[in-house]
Write a structure and sequence with these properties.
By secondary structure, this protein is mainly beta. The protein has 2 domains: 41-155, Beta Barrel (Lipocalin), CATH 2.40.128.30; 166-273, Lipocalin (Beta Barrel), CATH 2.40.128.20. Helices cover 9% and strands 56% of the residues. The chain is built from 3 helices and 18 strands. A hairpin with a 4-residue loop joins strand 4 and strand 5. The protein is globular and about 65 Å long.
Length: 275
Protein backbone atom coordinates (compact mmCIF):
# COMPACT_ATOMS: atom_id res chain seq x y z
CA UNK A 1 0.00 0.00 0.00
CA UNK A 2 2.85 2.39 0.82
CA UNK A 3 4.40 1.82 -2.61
CA UNK A 4 1.05 2.47 -4.31
CA UNK A 5 0.61 5.77 -2.42
CA UNK A 6 4.11 6.85 -3.46
CA UNK A 7 3.35 5.92 -7.09
CA UNK A 8 0.12 7.95 -7.12
CA UNK A 9 1.82 10.93 -5.48
CA UNK A 10 4.63 10.87 -8.03
CA UNK A 11 2.13 10.76 -10.90
CA UNK A 12 0.22 13.72 -9.46
CA UNK A 13 3.37 15.83 -9.18
CA UNK A 14 4.33 15.07 -12.76
CA UNK A 15 0.89 16.09 -14.03
CA UNK A 16 0.98 19.36 -12.10
CA UNK A 17 4.51 20.33 -13.06
CA UNK A 18 4.32 19.86 -16.82
CA UNK A 19 2.39 22.17 -19.14
CA UNK A 20 2.86 19.80 -22.05
CA UNK A 21 1.37 16.72 -20.39
CA UNK A 22 -2.17 16.41 -19.15
CA UNK A 23 -3.83 13.92 -16.81
CA UNK A 24 -7.34 13.25 -18.00
CA UNK A 25 -10.30 11.91 -16.06
CA UNK A 26 -10.42 8.91 -18.37
CA UNK A 27 -6.92 7.76 -17.38
CA UNK A 28 -7.56 8.23 -13.67
CA UNK A 29 -10.81 6.30 -13.94
CA UNK A 30 -9.05 3.44 -15.73
CA UNK A 31 -5.60 3.10 -14.14
CA UNK A 32 -3.16 0.85 -15.96
CA UNK A 33 -2.09 -2.13 -13.87
CA UNK A 34 1.69 -2.40 -13.38
CA UNK A 35 3.27 -4.94 -15.70
CA UNK A 36 5.13 -7.79 -14.04
CA UNK A 37 8.66 -8.20 -15.39
CA UNK A 38 9.27 -11.25 -17.55
CA UNK A 39 11.55 -13.36 -15.36
CA UNK A 40 11.56 -16.32 -17.75
CA UNK A 41 10.62 -18.51 -14.79
CA UNK A 42 9.59 -21.53 -16.90
CA UNK A 43 13.16 -21.84 -18.23
CA UNK A 44 15.22 -20.55 -15.30
CA UNK A 45 13.51 -22.73 -12.69
CA UNK A 46 14.61 -26.06 -14.24
CA UNK A 47 16.91 -27.93 -11.84
CA UNK A 48 17.19 -28.79 -8.14
CA UNK A 49 16.54 -26.20 -5.39
CA UNK A 50 16.66 -26.16 -1.57
CA UNK A 51 15.16 -23.64 0.84
CA UNK A 52 17.89 -21.41 2.33
CA UNK A 53 16.03 -18.55 4.06
CA UNK A 54 12.57 -17.88 5.49
CA UNK A 55 11.49 -14.26 5.84
CA UNK A 56 15.09 -13.07 5.74
CA UNK A 57 16.42 -15.53 8.33
CA UNK A 58 18.47 -18.69 7.72
CA UNK A 59 16.15 -21.68 7.44
CA UNK A 60 16.62 -24.32 10.16
CA UNK A 61 17.64 -27.62 8.59
CA UNK A 62 14.58 -29.36 10.07
CA UNK A 63 12.34 -27.12 7.93
CA UNK A 64 14.17 -27.55 4.65
CA UNK A 65 12.69 -29.07 1.52
CA UNK A 66 14.16 -29.90 -1.87
CA UNK A 67 12.28 -29.43 -5.14
CA UNK A 68 13.56 -30.67 -8.49
CA UNK A 69 11.91 -29.07 -11.51
CA UNK A 70 12.28 -31.53 -14.37
CA UNK A 71 10.24 -29.45 -16.83
CA UNK A 72 7.70 -26.60 -16.75
CA UNK A 73 4.99 -29.21 -16.06
CA UNK A 74 6.69 -31.84 -13.85
CA UNK A 75 8.66 -31.71 -10.59
CA UNK A 76 9.74 -33.91 -7.67
CA UNK A 77 9.65 -32.82 -4.04
CA UNK A 78 11.38 -34.21 -0.95
CA UNK A 79 10.35 -33.28 2.57
CA UNK A 80 10.39 -34.74 6.07
CA UNK A 81 7.99 -32.55 8.03
CA UNK A 82 7.39 -33.10 11.74
CA UNK A 83 4.24 -30.95 11.81
CA UNK A 84 2.29 -32.66 9.03
CA UNK A 85 4.25 -35.94 9.52
CA UNK A 86 4.97 -35.98 5.79
CA UNK A 87 7.74 -38.27 4.58
CA UNK A 88 8.26 -37.69 0.87
CA UNK A 89 11.27 -38.75 -1.15
CA UNK A 90 11.13 -37.19 -4.61
CA UNK A 91 7.35 -37.40 -4.77
CA UNK A 92 6.09 -36.56 -8.27
CA UNK A 93 4.23 -33.27 -8.66
CA UNK A 94 2.37 -31.52 -11.47
CA UNK A 95 3.47 -27.96 -12.23
CA UNK A 96 1.58 -25.01 -13.63
CA UNK A 97 3.53 -21.83 -14.50
CA UNK A 98 1.80 -18.57 -15.39
CA UNK A 99 4.33 -15.75 -15.67
CA UNK A 100 6.04 -15.56 -12.29
CA UNK A 101 3.39 -17.66 -10.50
CA UNK A 102 4.03 -21.37 -9.98
CA UNK A 103 1.57 -23.94 -8.62
CA UNK A 104 2.87 -27.33 -7.45
CA UNK A 105 0.35 -30.16 -6.94
CA UNK A 106 1.39 -33.51 -5.45
CA UNK A 107 -0.32 -36.62 -4.09
CA UNK A 108 1.52 -38.13 -1.13
CA UNK A 109 -0.82 -41.13 -1.09
CA UNK A 110 -4.51 -41.92 -1.64
CA UNK A 111 -5.49 -39.59 1.20
CA UNK A 112 -2.86 -36.83 1.55
CA UNK A 113 -2.23 -34.15 -1.09
CA UNK A 114 -0.14 -30.98 -1.14
CA UNK A 115 -0.69 -27.64 -2.92
CA UNK A 116 2.16 -25.12 -2.99
CA UNK A 117 1.53 -21.73 -4.61
CA UNK A 118 4.65 -19.69 -5.31
CA UNK A 119 5.14 -16.16 -6.62
CA UNK A 120 8.70 -15.58 -7.85
CA UNK A 121 10.06 -12.06 -7.44
CA UNK A 122 13.59 -12.74 -8.72
CA UNK A 123 15.53 -15.69 -10.14
CA UNK A 124 19.11 -16.23 -11.29
CA UNK A 125 21.26 -19.25 -12.05
CA UNK A 126 21.95 -19.70 -8.33
CA UNK A 127 19.19 -17.96 -6.31
CA UNK A 128 15.41 -17.61 -6.34
CA UNK A 129 13.34 -15.29 -4.12
CA UNK A 130 9.64 -15.97 -3.74
CA UNK A 131 6.57 -15.89 -1.53
CA UNK A 132 4.78 -19.16 -0.78
CA UNK A 133 1.48 -20.59 0.36
CA UNK A 134 1.49 -24.30 1.31
CA UNK A 135 -1.59 -26.37 2.13
CA UNK A 136 -1.82 -30.05 3.09
CA UNK A 137 -5.13 -31.86 2.56
CA UNK A 138 -6.36 -35.10 4.15
CA UNK A 139 -9.27 -36.55 2.18
CA UNK A 140 -10.04 -33.07 0.88
CA UNK A 141 -9.93 -31.35 4.29
CA UNK A 142 -7.19 -28.86 5.21
CA UNK A 143 -4.96 -30.33 7.93
CA UNK A 144 -1.97 -27.96 7.67
CA UNK A 145 -1.35 -24.53 6.16
CA UNK A 146 1.56 -22.10 6.26
CA UNK A 147 2.68 -19.02 4.33
CA UNK A 148 5.91 -17.07 4.01
CA UNK A 149 6.13 -13.55 2.65
CA UNK A 150 9.66 -14.20 1.43
CA UNK A 151 11.70 -17.32 0.89
CA UNK A 152 15.11 -17.68 -0.69
CA UNK A 153 15.94 -20.91 -2.48
CA UNK A 154 19.40 -21.82 -3.77
CA UNK A 155 20.28 -24.16 -6.58
CA UNK A 156 21.74 -27.54 -5.56
CA UNK A 157 24.62 -28.80 -7.67
CA UNK A 158 25.67 -31.86 -5.64
CA UNK A 159 23.76 -35.11 -5.10
CA UNK A 160 25.13 -37.47 -2.47
CA UNK A 161 22.52 -40.23 -2.83
CA UNK A 162 25.06 -42.79 -4.09
CA UNK A 163 28.09 -41.54 -2.17
CA UNK A 164 26.47 -42.12 1.22
CA UNK A 165 26.01 -45.87 0.67
CA UNK A 166 28.10 -48.14 2.91
CA UNK A 167 29.26 -48.37 6.52
CA UNK A 168 30.39 -45.22 8.33
CA UNK A 169 31.80 -44.56 11.79
CA UNK A 170 31.81 -41.20 13.51
CA UNK A 171 30.36 -38.81 16.03
CA UNK A 172 29.10 -35.31 16.58
CA UNK A 173 31.89 -32.74 16.62
CA UNK A 174 29.68 -30.30 18.52
CA UNK A 175 27.43 -32.37 20.78
CA UNK A 176 26.70 -29.87 23.55
CA UNK A 177 23.15 -29.23 22.34
CA UNK A 178 22.65 -32.44 20.36
CA UNK A 179 19.33 -34.10 21.11
CA UNK A 180 20.33 -37.62 20.10
CA UNK A 181 24.14 -37.80 20.16
CA UNK A 182 26.33 -38.58 23.18
CA UNK A 183 29.64 -37.54 21.64
CA UNK A 184 30.81 -41.17 21.35
CA UNK A 185 31.61 -43.01 18.13
CA UNK A 186 28.77 -44.94 16.52
CA UNK A 187 28.25 -46.66 13.20
CA UNK A 188 25.62 -46.25 10.50
CA UNK A 189 25.24 -48.46 7.46
CA UNK A 190 23.23 -46.83 4.67
CA UNK A 191 21.61 -49.32 2.31
CA UNK A 192 20.37 -48.80 -1.25
CA UNK A 193 16.77 -49.66 -0.28
CA UNK A 194 16.41 -46.49 1.83
CA UNK A 195 16.99 -48.13 5.23
CA UNK A 196 19.96 -47.92 7.58
CA UNK A 197 21.49 -49.98 10.39
CA UNK A 198 22.65 -48.25 13.58
CA UNK A 199 25.44 -49.83 15.66
CA UNK A 200 26.67 -49.13 19.19
CA UNK A 201 29.99 -50.20 20.66
CA UNK A 202 29.34 -52.41 23.70
CA UNK A 203 32.44 -53.73 25.48
CA UNK A 204 34.46 -53.54 22.28
CA UNK A 205 31.82 -55.20 20.11
CA UNK A 206 29.64 -53.42 17.55
CA UNK A 207 26.00 -54.29 18.25
CA UNK A 208 23.24 -53.47 15.75
CA UNK A 209 20.26 -51.68 17.25
CA UNK A 210 16.97 -53.58 17.19
CA UNK A 211 14.89 -50.82 15.58
CA UNK A 212 11.40 -51.35 14.19
CA UNK A 213 11.84 -48.35 11.88
CA UNK A 214 15.06 -46.99 10.38
CA UNK A 215 14.55 -45.07 7.11
CA UNK A 216 16.53 -42.38 5.34
CA UNK A 217 16.66 -40.55 2.06
CA UNK A 218 19.10 -38.18 0.40
CA UNK A 219 17.99 -35.59 -2.14
CA UNK A 220 20.81 -33.37 -3.33
CA UNK A 221 22.66 -32.48 -0.13
CA UNK A 222 19.69 -32.94 2.24
CA UNK A 223 19.75 -36.08 4.43
CA UNK A 224 16.55 -36.98 6.28
CA UNK A 225 16.33 -39.88 8.74
CA UNK A 226 13.61 -41.38 10.93
CA UNK A 227 13.74 -44.27 13.38
CA UNK A 228 11.81 -45.97 16.14
CA UNK A 229 13.35 -48.24 18.73
CA UNK A 230 11.83 -51.60 19.58
CA UNK A 231 9.67 -51.89 22.69
CA UNK A 232 6.36 -50.69 24.04
CA UNK A 233 5.78 -46.95 24.20
CA UNK A 234 8.64 -46.00 21.87
CA UNK A 235 8.16 -42.91 19.70
CA UNK A 236 9.32 -42.13 16.19
CA UNK A 237 12.27 -39.76 16.01
CA UNK A 238 13.53 -37.70 13.09
CA UNK A 239 16.76 -35.92 12.30
CA UNK A 240 17.80 -33.77 9.34
CA UNK A 241 21.30 -32.92 8.12
CA UNK A 242 22.90 -31.16 5.19
CA UNK A 243 25.80 -33.10 3.75
CA UNK A 244 28.67 -30.63 3.55
CA UNK A 245 31.05 -32.97 1.72
CA UNK A 246 32.02 -36.58 1.06
CA UNK A 247 35.67 -36.73 0.07
CA UNK A 248 38.47 -39.27 0.47
CA UNK A 249 36.39 -41.51 2.71
CA UNK A 250 35.34 -38.71 5.06
CA UNK A 251 31.76 -37.45 5.31
CA UNK A 252 30.87 -34.16 7.00
CA UNK A 253 27.41 -32.97 8.00
CA UNK A 254 26.12 -29.63 9.22
CA UNK A 255 22.74 -28.48 10.48
CA UNK A 256 21.19 -25.29 11.79
CA UNK A 257 19.16 -26.25 14.88
CA UNK A 258 16.56 -24.19 16.72
CA UNK A 259 16.09 -24.38 20.47
CA UNK A 260 12.69 -24.10 22.14
CA UNK A 261 13.37 -20.44 22.99
CA UNK A 262 13.90 -19.63 19.29
CA UNK A 263 17.68 -19.24 19.43
CA UNK A 264 19.76 -21.25 16.96
CA UNK A 265 23.05 -23.10 16.89
CA UNK A 266 25.05 -25.05 14.30
CA UNK A 267 25.57 -28.78 14.79
CA UNK A 268 28.33 -30.65 12.98
CA UNK A 269 29.13 -34.31 12.43
CA UNK A 270 32.05 -36.18 10.90
CA UNK A 271 32.50 -39.87 10.07
CA UNK A 272 34.86 -42.08 8.11
CA UNK A 273 33.97 -44.91 5.76
CA UNK A 274 34.69 -48.45 6.98
CA UNK A 275 36.05 -51.22 4.78
Amino acid sequence: MKKMIQWVLAATLVCGASVFTSCTNDSSDNPVAPVEPDLNVAEMIIGKWIVAELNGQPCPTNLKTVVTFESPTKAYGSISDIYSMSWNEQTAADISINGNKVTILSEEDDHISHVLNVTVSSITDTDMVLSSDWTVFLDGEVVYHETYDQERWVRVTKDYGDDILGLWEGRSTDSEDSEFDDGENHRWEYLADGTFHYHQNVDGQWIQSDDVLSDYFVDGNLLCTRWKNAGEGQEEHREWWEIESIENGVMKWTALRMREDGTTYTATFEMTKQQ
